[in-house]
Amino acid sequence: MLGRIIRHEWRTLGADATLWVVGLAFVAAIGYGVWNGARWVGFQQAALAASAAEEAERYARLETEVQELQRTGGKVSPFRDPRSPSNAGSRFAPRYATLPPGPLAPLAVGQSDLLPYYFKVSTESRDAIVGATEIENPQRLLVGRFDLAFVLIFFYPILILALCYNMLSAEQEQGTLALTLSQPLSLATLASGKVLLRAGVLVGTVVVCTLAALFIGGVDLAGPGALPRLGLWVAAVVAYGAFWFGLAMLVASFGLRSAANATVLASAWLVLVVVLPSVFNLAATTLFPVPSRMELVQAVRVASDDANAAGSKLLAGYYEDHPELATGDAAQAMTDFNVIRIAVNDDVERRVRPVVQRYEQQIAAQQRLVDGLRFVSPAVLMQSALYDIAGTGHARHQTFLQQVDAYHAAWRQFFTPLIFQKASFTNYAGTPRFEFDEETAGTVAGRVAPAVFGLAIPAIALVWFALARLARFPIVS
After folding, report:
1. What is the pLDDT of residues 299-331, one digit of tens each?
2. Using CA atoms, how far apart are residues 351 and 354, in angstroms rounded to an integer?
């Protein structure tokens, strides 16, 4: 009987031209969302390729200059000498630390257009490196980019509710519901068949169209971690859709008229998808305000001025902390600009660290608050899941920053002894290289699973309550 209901509903829905138009618009939105996401990923890849090409060209030029100077014994200004480890480590030979797009990055732009995805690492202070980011259009950052995540979070539930708000009330108002139930058929079976057909069509459309768009966009689904992430993405889509189908089914079980159902469901969508996320964001920024960017810039500027003014004194303290770097000619070392610069950078980082730590603590507090509140809103749960799956969220970027910090420390550890020893630096090929250590699928699944269960469990509860209420459904309006 359930299969017969599904076939009947398929014929009924297929005869409605409006649904076909809306369906085609939804398919077009999915395609455009994936295409827009792929275009942003292409922009990122082009920027990373350009940085890699610039680095390779710069290193080839430096190696050529070093070989020419060694061959001819030519003289060059100390400030332009590529054999100076101070020049090499700070100005000539910095390498890029880059965050490549995730395997499924076209699915969700997320925060990848807001958070920097490459840094030029040198012996300068951490804040001079991390704080140097590209200028982006603030209006674009405020509005965000239209991607598949946006389509799923906002449009997907609207289409579900539009298909389900009158699935029982329409027949009740037309007087055909009693005739239908005169057959050996329960109302719960009838409602289940209607929902299963709609769910199968919508979820199938989302999955098939997304796979097609990814294939056309050239995404390598056979790449490392792509298939597990795709499985998580499908699970999130199913769970999110199940929540909204369950909600529509519960509202339909009260036996209200179609107009009332539409009003209730539209209000629920507005509260759960628009109002609550805005309230969460307002609460996070109000309770845990982040220090202004100008405060950090001013702190770096003041710290740099103070550190430069006390350069020799700072160097003396630096020698006390690092006696292994002391040379035989202590008097000359105390007046050497390059070695003083190492101590100055170290002191600038120490002075600015409280401001940076306060910024990071406030961001972490905001994230914890939103993580705790997200289970109240399915839209926030879905957003966090999609961003994690696509690799464009906060967590993956924090992993990147931690690896950048470790790389920066390794870079300075490589050059600092050479600077203090006043060695001649010619080993450009031996400088440390950065390679992002991608998160495992298990790590991503560990973050996504609570969101998926946070959607699936309420969906099951909604369906259960709806089926229980259908026993009291008024057959005749």
Report:
1. 666 666 665 555 445 544 555 455 555 555 543
2. 7
User: At 420, which helix (H) or strand (E)?
Assistant: helix 394-421
- pLDDT tens digits, one per residue of 112-170: 878 889 999 988 877 666 655 554 444 444 445 788 899 999 999 999 998 888 888 88
Virtual torsion, Cα 357, 289, 294, 403, nearest 10 deg: 40
Return d(Cα 167, Cα 236) in angstroms, integer.
25
Count of CB atoms within 10 A of residue 323's CB?
A: 7
Q: Extract the tokens encoding 369.
A: 């608050």
Residue 121: name the closest of 406, 383, 346, 378 by CA.
406
Q: In Å, how far are 88, 105, 169, 220, 365 from 164, measured between CA atoms? A: 66, 32, 10, 36, 39
> Amino acid identity, residue 159?
L
The whole-model pTM stands at: 0.84
User: Which phi and psi (to 5°) does residue 109 adopt?
Assistant: -65, -40
Which two structure tokens, joined as six digits, stand for 266?
């539209």
Q: Is 53 exposed, middle or buried (0-12, 13-18, 19+ CB in 10 A)?
A: exposed
Residue closest to 159 by CA, chosen among 30, 263, 22? 22
Greatest extent of the chain over all pairs of C-alpha atoms, in Å: 104
The residue whose two tokens read 């990814």 is: 214
246: nearest Cα among 274, 267, 266, 265: 265
Q: What is the dihedral of CA 16, 251, 455, 12, to 10 degrees?
A: -20
